[in-house]
Specification:
Blueprint: H1 24-40, H2 45-51, H3 57-67, H4 84-97, H5 99-119, H6 122-133, E1 139-142, E2 158-162, E3 165-176, E4 183-190, E5 193-200, E6 206-207, E7 222-232, E8 237-242, H7 245-279, E9 281-282, E10 285-286, H8 291-319, H9 325-350, H10 361-373, H11 378-390
Parallel strand pairs: 1-4
Antiparallel strand pairs: 2-3, 3-7, 4-5, 5-8, 6-7, 9-10
Helix pairs in contact: 1-4, 4-5, 4-7, 5-6, 5-7, 7-8, 7-9, 7-10, 8-9, 9-10, 9-11
Keywords: FAD, Flavoprotein, Oxidoreductase, Transit peptide
Pfam family, one: Acyl-CoA_dh_1
Protein name: Acyl-CoA dehydrogenase family protein
Length: about 400
């Protein structure tokens, strides 16, 4: 390197210079979503979390639709057609506000809309996707059941042919957006294998009671789906998906957003810890001046920005059509696990104040306990990677 070339100054907010990897359009998307979250979520989310509610969710969905954040990486039908990295940056900024807001967007776009976009008929796409992209219609995704989580192939929800109609019976559990959704993508066992169905929320026999008494994702709508002889026409089935490959491909797409989103929660806690360490005084000086506190902050920064770099790498692979499900498992396993550690360490820096909702730390830490489990537990992603590394299937 020429001696005349001067290195840029060190940026504590971007210690690896990762912004250099982003195009102007990427930065514009990131900054737009960050500004929206700062205005529409951050001033209120602690109160929402304390009350265990997400008021005005339909209005928020329409605003997110106006931003182009719903079905963001999908093409056509009113969707933004953004790049994978741009979608990831949006997830990071949304989860830096709250995991519940990112979950709203992720379930809408990467699960419900993605299923219709990839596996639906043209009629289904035309009917649902433009209204879902605008936020006029909220969607949900019914796969997990009360007794069936990591083993979706054992689902009990079933669909039977009755003439040209389908009749669905069963229950789905832990469904984000369920009780505010206008449409549900429900996976059910049929005589021909597992199939996906587009179920309008107003269908007779369909209900979505909200789940209460949660201590995580409290600023999010979580519901049960009950299907009691729900009769659907023949064209309600997603024609392009038979078997578990359909829902699992949707989950892989959504997990990619989590790889980014978890780093948003971690960043929020890290920033809170740095600010607190610089202002909180003990023994006559700021605690940020003590070696043990600086060691914590350094370790947190290393894992945070390694996680963002990993997310960026996976995003570029997705854009190139080279991203494998095992690599998504790699990212989800690492980034959520490290994000939880960052949040817990941040709590120790804040001491007793770390449990107060005046700071974001405990809220993010409890939210991430759900993120760690949903869309693939730690154990499932470990086994995915174990099989990929050894060629030996340890699932059964």
């Amino acid at each position: 390197m020429s001696a005349s070339v001067k290195s840029p100054p060190f940026d504590p907010a971007d210690p690896l210079g990762l912004d250099d990897l982003l195009e102007p359009e990427d930065l514009a998307v990131r900054d737009t979503v960050r500004t929206w979250a700062a205005d529409r979520v951050l001033p209120y989310v602690a109160d929402w979390y304390e009350k265990g509610e997400l008021p005005g969710v339909r209005e928020l969905a329409r605003e997110l639709g106006a931003l182009g954040a719903l079905g963001m990486s999908l093409d056509g039908y009113g969707c933004a057609g953004a790049s994978a990295v741009q979608y990831g940056l949006a997830c990071l900024e949304l989860e830096a506000a709250d995991s519940g807001i990112r979950s709203l967007v992720s379930v809408q776009g990467s699960l419900a809309m993605y299923a219709v976009h990839r596996f639906g008929s043209e009629e289904q796409k035309q009917r649902w996707l433009p209204r879902m992209a605008s936020g006029e219609v909220i969607g949900c995704f019914g796969l997990t059941e009360p007794d069936i989580g990591s083993d979706p192939g054992s689902m009990r929800t079933h669909a039977k042919k009755d003439g040209t109609d389908w009749v669905l019976n069963g229950r789905k559990m832990w469904i984000t957006n369920g009780s505010v959704a206008g449409v549900a993508v429900v996976w059910a066992r049929t005589d021909d294998g597992i199939r996906g169905f587009v179920v309008p929320a107003g269908s007779a026999g369909f209900s979505a009671p909200e789940i209460k008494h949660k201590w995580s994702l409290r600023a999010s709508v979580t519901s049960e789906l009950v299907l009691d002889d729900v009769r659907l026409p023949a064209d309600a089935v997603l024609p392009g998906a038979t078997g578990l490959k359909g829902p699992l491909s949707c989950l892989s797409h959504a997990r990619y957003g989590i790889v980014w989103g978890a780093m948003g929660a971690a960043r929020s806690c890290f920033e809170a810890a740095v600010d607190y360490a610089k202002s909180r005084e003990q023994f006559g000086r700021p605690i940020g001046g003590f070696q043990l506190t600086q060691a914590k902050l350094a370790d947190m920064a290393v894992e945070l920005h390694k996680g963002i770099l990993l997310a960026h790498h996976l995003g570029r692979r997705m854009e190139a059509g080279r991203l494998r499900p095992e690599q998504v498992s790699f990212g989800k396993l690492n980034n959520v696990r490290e994000a939880i550690d960052i949040c817990r360490t941040a709590r120790t820096v804040l001491g007793a104040n770390g449990i107060s909702l005046e700071y974001p730390v405990m809220r993010h830490a409890t939210n991430l306990e759900s993120v760690l489990t949903y869309e693939g537990t730690v154990e499932m992603h470990q086994l995915v990677l174990g099989k990929a590394l050894t060629g030996l299937d340890a699932f059964r």
